[in-house]
Amino acid sequence: MWATPDVLDHPWVAAFRRTRAWRGFVELVGGPRRRLRILETRPWAHPYRPELVVPRTMLSEDEVAMLHWFGRWYFRGRGQIVDAGCFLGGSTAALAQGVSANHRLSRERRWIDSYDTFVMDWYAKREFFADSPLQVGDSFYDEWRTAVEPWERFVSVHRGDVCAQTWGGEKVEILFLDVMKTVPVQTVVTERWFPRLIAGRSILIQQDYVHEWQPWIIVSMELLRHYFLPLDYFDYGSAVYFCVRVPSRRTVEAADVGALPLATQLELMDRAATRMPAHHVPVIANARAKLLIDFRRYDEARAAIEDVWRRWPEHARARSVGERLLEYAEKDAAKGLSASA
Ligand SMILES: C[S@@+](CC[C@H](N)C(=O)[O-])C[C@H]1O[C@@H](n2cnc3c(N)ncnc32)[C@H](O)[C@@H]1O
Q1: 286 and 240 in a common domain
Q2: Which site from 63, 329, 331, 339 is most exposed, i.e. has the minimal number of CB atoms within 10 Å?
Q3: How far is the CA of 119 from the centre of ligand 1 (A)?
Q4: Are residue 138 and residue 87 in the same domain, yes or no?
Q5: How far is the CA of 179 from the centre of ligand 1 (A)?
Q6: Do both 43 and 186 map to the same domain?
Q7: Which atom of ligand 1 is nearest to the CA of 83?
Q8: 242 and 294: one domain?
Q9: For atom 11 of ligand 1, which residue has the closest CA?
Q10: What's the 44 CA to ligand 1 centre distance in angstroms?
Q11: Residue 179: CB within 6 Å of ligand 1?
Q12: Is the CB of 125 under 6 A from ligand 1?
């Protein structure tokens, strides 16, 4: 675990550490390279396990600890923390408890911007609200508010479609994205926030990267690979990046996945797979099959899934997700047929 001595948390010392003179000194003797050396040791990884109050969440324990670590030990208040897709407040609470224990920061500022529609979908109903009178389409905002109440003073909440929100010129120091559920949302979110990152400081967390159902995230990060250095991958979840340089608005616009032909996207996914730790590759291979389904190349998708099963016969998740992908492809094909009838 990377920790600072208690003396650094003393209010006088903490106040001094907020001055420009101190920050300039730290940049001079420390700076991005030293920061990166520390980050590459993955100090948030097990056994880092702070005692936290965590509401029900879709995140793993490892991801919660990682978010806390960034709020507590890394965040310096050079920009905001974006928590996009906060659901019942798991990510918000982890970040906010980190911020709350981080004495280098002003207590007066709402450092975290949390976003969600707070509208229940079928998955949330099935997995989190099965016994609740709330139904699909109802708001779960009150649950989020109750869960984050102890740290509410650090959080600004933005209800509604993230695409309909605006953002001023503020920089973003930690960008946690758990909202990239469609290509159009990804396009808006990346164009809004990526150019606001800080080179040599900002952290980007793509929660759905190591996942089968959102191949566009893998394609997008591959397009922008010269701007972000991967630091960590979590099982069936987040990829964590250090922003080495900031993509301009024009660069991000040019990297719009929605405008790319299938062949280019497949090529980018194949390249991404060569850089991933081997045990994550079956996930990327199934995400590739999902991409083929999105382009209605059902036969090729089936062949790709069968290839995954051949290559990783013992991989239980590759098997079960592959089966779900095939079901999804069948329904998608049937929908296409009925639309053209
Ligand atoms: C996977 S969940 C987030 C999980 C959460 N980070 C946690 O800690 O448990 C994704 C969230 O994104 C929200 N969401 C999806 N599309 C959205 C959109 N266009 N605008 C705002 N929120 C959206 C959903 O309501 C959902 O709560």
Answers
A1: no
A2: 339
A3: 9
A4: yes
A5: 5
A6: yes
A7: 6
A8: no
A9: 85
A10: 23
A11: yes
A12: no
* CATH number, domain with residue 205: 3.40.50.150
Domain membership of residue 265 (yes or no) is no
Task: Note whether residue 146 is domain-resident.
Answer: yes
- Ligand 1 atom nearest the C-alpha of 58 is 9
Q: Are residues 26 and 111 in the same domain?
A: yes
Residue 218, in any domain of the structure: yes
Q: How far is the CA of 158 from the centre of ligand 1 (A)?
A: 12
Is any ligand 1 atom within 6 A of the Cβ of residue 198?
no
Residue 247, ligand 1, Cβ within 6 A: no
Walk along the chain (341 residues) and give the pLDDT tens digit of each residue: 444 456 766 778 878 877 777 766 666 666 888 899 999 999 999 999 999 999 999 999 999 999 999 999 999 999 999 999 999 999 999 999 999 999 999 888 999 999 999 999 999 999 999 999 999 999 999 999 999 999 999 999 999 999 999 999 999 999 999 999 999 999 999 999 999 999 999 999 999 999 999 999 999 999 999 999 999 999 999 999 999 999 999 999 999 999 999 999 999 999 999 999 999 999 999 999 999 999 999 999 999 999 999 999 999 999 999 999 999 999 999 987 776 66
Q: Note whether 38 and 177 are same-domain residues.
A: yes
> Separation of 129 CA from ligand 1 center, angstroms?
15
Number of domains in the chain: 2
CA of 239 to the centre of ligand 1 (A): 17
Q: How many beta carbons lie within 10 A of that of residue 319, not counting itself?
A: 16
Structural domain boundaries enclosing 160: 6-257
> What 8-state DSSP symbol labels residue 56?
S
Do 249 and 296 share a domain, yes or no? Answer: no
Distance of alpha carbon 167 from the chain centroid: 18
- Judge if 70 and 103 occupy the same domain: yes
Residues 324, 318: Cα–Cα separation, whole Å: 10
In a domain, residue 263? The reply is: no
Identity (one letter) of the amino acid at 241?
A: Y
Query: From start to end of the chain, where are the E strands?
Result: 80-84, 112-116, 155-159, 172-177, 203-206, 228-233, 239-243
| CA-based R_g, the chain, Å | 21
- Quickly list DSSP for 123-192: HHHHHH-TTSS--TT-B-HHHHHHHHGGGGGGEEEEES-GGG----S--EEEEEE----SHHHHHHHHHH
